[in-house]
Predict the structure.
Amino acid sequence: MVVKKALIHQSIFAQAPELFPEIMYFFLIGGYACGKTSALSDAILESIAELAGKKDKEGRKPKIGICGITLTFLKKTLSGVLTQVLDMTKSTYIYDKNSNIITVAGVELHLTPIINEEDIFGFDWNRAFVDELDELPTYKAVAVVKTISERCRQTIEGVRPPFLSFATTSQGLKGTFQTIETFKKQGIAYFIVRGKTADNIHLPQSYIDNQYKIMTPKEAECYLEGKFVSVNTDKTYPNYNRQNHYLDYDVYDTINEDDIIYIGQDFNTGFNKAAAVVCREGIAYLVKNYVFPDVRKAPEVFRYDFPKNRIRWIPDSTSNDMLPQFRKAMRENNIEVVYRKKNPLVRDRTFLINSMLYADRLFVSKRCEDVDEALFTRQNDPVTGLPMKGKGEKAPDHICDCVEYALYYCVSWLSMFKDLYSVTLGRRFKNLIDAGLKSTKDAYMHIKEEKVAGQ
């Protein structure tokens, strides 16, 4: 018999799901080399012992999701450690490498890559164990947690309800932090145990001491103690604070007939996103967000939502060749169209949004959950420093572009934002003019407004 002495945080992590059956989400947030992978392996083995010989109501074997960034990553880490323990204990198991399923004591372990959440489908798991969630881009991590949650639905009589366990090194305010903040916002229960690098009694003290010497205090808190602190998070909108900027009421219900509605529009095949803004006394409010499978329906929907308001539509200028087909629909629905020669620079747009957030001049209505999620999770590419371009409808850049188009126009042209413009975009263009780049200013600021009859 092989006897292993677990570290305290490993033991707590393995036992927590049985101690708290009403909780679905469990997290081990650890420092480097604190034993996270071993903790996951131990928890999986404990689950196998619990589920061995059992069946669900349809007579199927218990199934467990074993999740990591890629299959290669899994084989080098979690599944590699797991099979090593099974071999060491002389346990009988079947490893089907074609289907990536390990079967032990009648329990199926599904090795599953999570780099693309759309590939996580067709599973019915009783529980899932996820290794290094924070290695994913932030917006993907949040989406992956939702997707895995949907897969954990196999119920087995006499066994606690399905759950998810995550073990990850803290990478600052990235995916795991954002996921937990989302749980807080939605009132979802979760369990966290932290493991410090120094808690691993098997590490040489010299290793621990040297790690603290080469890191800044903040880095040490994050990477050695598993705390959520801001270290190289690369957030596109670091000034967005949900507690301050996400309102607990619906601004849409307060719309007056004299409010002008500004709508930023993005174009994508199969999902065309839009965001509606209203501005009052120098403050911008995100009122509503949209997604249109068929963008030709947009004018009619906008007018339905704002039946008596003046509406200005600010579309993505990279699709200017598409705009003529909307002229008739826009005129029929009494909507003004704003044309640009080109979109403003991405850096200028994100700088403006952060400036508005910092000055508390931008707020998100309770109705705009997509905008809230996108502002909260969007990340910059660590190489280029520019916001990451995502794939698919869930990627945050699409709705964020809509917000930026609308707000850039509002701050540039509404007198209520004159003070903000002078210290943000105005200063930017003054510097360009001083450098002799007048054409740059003209290209970004050229606006043609096509107004409807009678306005």
Notes: The longest strand covers residues 283-292. The domain at 242-450 is CATH 3.30.420.280 (Nucleotidyltransferase; domain 5).
